[in-house]
Amino acid sequence: MKRAVFANRWLPYLLVLPQVLVTVVFFFWPAAKSLYLSVFKSPPFGGRDLFVGLDNFTALVVSPEYYDSVVSSFVFAGGVTGLSVVGGLVVAALANQKIRGLTFYRTALLWPYGIAPAIAGIIFLFIFHPAYGILPYFLSFVTAYEFNWLLRGWIAMALVITATAWTHLGYNIAFFLAGLQAIPGSVIEAASVDGAGPVRRFTAIVLPLISPVTFYLVVVNMVFAFFGSFQMIHAVTQGGPGHSTEIMVYKLWKDGFIGLDLGSSAAQSVILMAMVVGLTVLQFRFAEKKVTY
Amino acid sequence: MSTLAREGALARPARMVVAERRRRPFPWGSLTVHGLLLLAVAVIAFPLYYAFVISTQEVSEVIQKPPRLLPSVHLVENYYEAWQRSGMGRLLLNSMIVAVGVAVGKISISMLSAFAIVYFQFRGRQLVFWMIFITLMLPIPVRILPTYEVIGNLGWLNTYAGLTVPLMASATATFLFRQFYLTIPNELVEAAQLDGAGPLRFLWSILMPLSWANVAALFVVLFIYGWNEYLWPLLITDTEEMRTVVIGLESLIPRSGTELPTWNYIMAGAMMALLPPVAVILFMQRWFVRGLIESEK
Question: Are A54 and A41 in contact (CB under 8 A)?
Fold first, then answer.
């Protein structure tokens, strides 16, 4: 902080008041209440809360359904992150080849980011539709395998992963392009003078130099897949078939708002809170290095 | 002397041309790159193209085999029907109010708090800074039930206030403005003070005009965030009049097997719902990219 030039007793408090009010009323109080609820059992139709200690947590830990939702979340987040970060890097590296039309390509690749995951999901739902979809139709010429996401969990998972990665690819491309363009041309030239070919230049010089961007994007994509993808599941698969796409945020919503199991839902919130704190700390410890190359 | 000079003048470009030619005889490399990039563009554009194609067909065309990949002639009637069935006018209006409200609200309160943090010394400044930072770690899912309860107690269910105000805290926007204010030379504020400007005058007449680029960049990013928010409006609205378009579209989807597969209406609705944010990205691309990258620093 470099300065504090205005002296005024109450004005600074008035200026931060709106932000602080929103923060306390809609963030801190509810988060504290989540922590509180997670150690109580609340009867769904009224009555006094019953302190149960860590029972809600132990119930989750031993529940195979919760275990499944954790696995689904990691499969989903890993799939989305892998697909959109690797895809974003490849496309950004291509677009960075000193060719004309960079702005055109960036625009032409970025716009799906504006589409809500739920709407992207609905579009992909039709592409994957077992009866009318174009993808099962063309696959039926190649294989007799029944490509029906309503019956097969892994296809439903592929559907939501593809649709999510589709909306998020442009974000990654934008960040990779910014990172790639920040690499001084002289570094690459020096390497080519030393006889490094394009592939070697990319793996030995470009990749290490943009590794902070890559790391940042991995974290952001994971956070997005874990916490921003409720809508994809809710609008498309509703957790099914079975529980195969029931990721943690969806299960927590379902248990809380449909199942009315407040204690368990709050405990799931607390577990997610721990995860997002971990991911945010990771991201910010790295953020300082991000701008130094 | 003069001939030498001329020779030199002539020889150099000639040599350069030769060298240039030797290095790239024909731009195969760059053609390949363009080819691959265009392929990527086509792959990425296909789902949207396909959705558009479906939105122009009638049901018999939608379900025909092989799938028809070219637009048909039913665009107007499909969009009209989707508009009628979903109450699209109201949905779009609500989404617009929410997106603009959230964007303007976040920018305003973030600007004010960043101004206080940078330009004032006050007890609790550090605390405020950390409070704002911590909101980053509290996305809606981790406080979902109690936030719903708070909205209920405030009587904000099914209101625009409920749809927008709780989303207005923004660590990223506050940090962006703070970062920007710190780059503004002290001489500016000293000059303003010499001219007798108080803090609010300085904010309004000097800081805000200078922040315009940041405001535009943030607005684009936050508008898209607000437009596409889903979990929040799903929680706190349960009337047709208060739904936003991303939620309201669901009413077009046939869930039971006995309904007609009216995917043409669904896709027409989807096209109308995604057009505003995508148009904002396309027309404000420079601001959008800047907003994305700046706000994450």
Answer: no
Cα pseudo-dihedral A118, A123, A128, A132, rounded to 10: 130
- Nearest residue in chain B measured CA to CA from A289: B297
DSSP-H helix ranges across chain A: 11-23, 29-37, 55-62, 64-95, 102-110, 117-127, 134-142, 153-181, 185-193, 198-201, 207-227, 230-235, 248-253, 262-290
Amino acid identity for residue B163 in this structure: L
pLDDT for the residue numbered B258:
64
Q: Which residue in the set B67, B138, B292 is minimally distant from A27, CB to CB?
A: B138
What pLDDT digit, counting tens, does each position of B62-82 carry? 888 888 888 888 899 999 998
Residues of chain B with pLDDT under 70: 1-27, 254-259, 296-297
Helices (H), A228-261: 230-235, 248-253
Q: For residue A73, which of B236, B285, B195, B141 has the smallest C-alpha distance?
A: B141
Inspect the interface and report whether the beta carbons of B227 and A116 lie closer than 8 Å.
Answer: yes
Secondary element (H or E) of residue B222: helix B212-227
Q: How far apart are CA B3 and CA B122, in angstroms?
A: 76
**Which residue in A122, A141, A253, A261 has the most chain B C-beta atoms within 10 A of its own C-beta, making it the best mutation to test that interface?**
A122
Q: Rounded to whole angstroms, how far apart are CA atoms A209 and A229?
A: 30
Q: How many residues does chain B have?
A: 297
- How many CB atoms are closer than 10 A to CB A131? 12
Asked if residue B267 lies in contact with residue A100, where contact means CB atoms within 8 angstroms, the answer is no
Q: Which residues 6+ apart lie within 8 Å of A180 measured at CB?
A: A92, A93, A96, A206, A210
| DSSP-based three-state secondary structure for A50 | strand
Instruction: Kindly identify which residue of chain B lies nearest to residue A95, measuring between CA atoms.
Output: B37
Q: Is the complex ipTM more than 0.85? A: yes
Q: Which of helix, strand or coil describes residue A128?
A: coil
Closest CA to B36 of A99, A83, A206, A202: A99
**Residue A31 burial (10 A CB sphere; 0-12, 13-18, 19+):** buried
Among B234, B277, B236, which Cα is nearest to B99's?
A: B277
Residues 6+ apart with CB under 8 A from A162: A83, A124
H or E stretch covering A40 = strand A40-41
* Cβ atoms B269, B86 nearer than 8 A: yes
Residue in the structure block whose two tokens are 């931060």: A16
* pTM for this entry: 0.88
